[in-house]
Amino acid sequence: MDKIAFTAGALYFIVLLRAGGTFAVGWLAGAGARRSRFAERISSAKFQRAERAIQRWGAPVVAVSFLTIGFQTAANFLAGSMRMPLRRYIPALVVGGAAWALIYATAGIGVLKVLGRLFAEHTALGVAAVAALLLAVCAVVLYRRKRAASPSPAEATAKATAEPATEES
User: Which residues make Cβ contacts (< 8 Å) with residue 94, sequence separation at least 6?
Assistant: First the structure.
C-alpha cells in the first residue's frame, strides 16, 4: 500500500505541473493570438459564444479528459487558450488529476508486477508477449495511415465521375 500511495502522490504532483503548465501555455498562446492577425477571427460572434461555453461548461470536460488517452493535453491547452477562469479550471484539475494519478498508480504497479513476474518465470513468453504487442501497435498504425491516405468510396466515385474518360488508340 505504501508503494501505491507514494506512486499516486508522485504522479499527482507530476500531473498538476504538466496539466497546469499546458493550461498556462494555452493561456499565453490565446493572448498572443488575440494580438495577432487572427484577432479579427477570434473576435467573431461565433467564436465568442464558443469561448463563453467553454468558460462555463468546460470544467467537466477537463476533469474527464484525464481519463482519456490523447485528449488530456488538448483539453488543458484549449481551456487555457479559451481563458477558462481559474476558479473553474483548478477544481477540474484537482479532481481529474487525482483520478488519473490513482488509476495509473494502481493499474501501473499491477501491470509492472505482472510483467516482472512473467519475465522472471517465463522469459520467452514475456518476450513473445511484448513482441506481439509491438506488432499489434504497428499494424494499427499502418492500417490507420493507409485508411487516411486512400480516398473514401464516395470520394473515389465523385472523382471518377468528375474526370472525363479518354480513349487512347
Answer: 16
Place of cell 513476474: 117
Give just the sign of the alpha carbon dihedral 94, 64, 21, 69: positive
Q: Is 168 helix (H, G, I), strand (E, B) or coil?
A: coil
Q: Which of 52, 55, 76, 56 is nearest to 64 (CA)?
A: 76
Rounded CA-CA distance 165/86 in Å is 61
Question: pLDDT 10s per residue in the chain (169 long)?
Answer: 688 889 899 999 999 999 999 999 999 998 888 888 877 777 777 777 777 778 888 889 889 889 888 788 888 998 998 889 999 999 999 999 999 999 999 988 888 888 888 889 988 988 888 899 899 999 999 998 898 887 766 666 666 666 555 555 4
Amino acid letter for position 87? R
- The answer to whether 143 and 42 have CB atoms below 8 angstroms apart is no
Closest CA to 24 of 79, 87, 80: 80
- Give the SS3 label for residue 38: coil
Instruction: Quote the cell numbers at residue 57.
Output: 461548461
Question: Which of 95, 73, 92 has the alpha carbon at shortest distance from 22?
Answer: 73
- pTM score, whole prediction: 0.66
Beta-carbon-side half-sphere exposure of residue 67 (alpha carbons within 13 Å) = 8
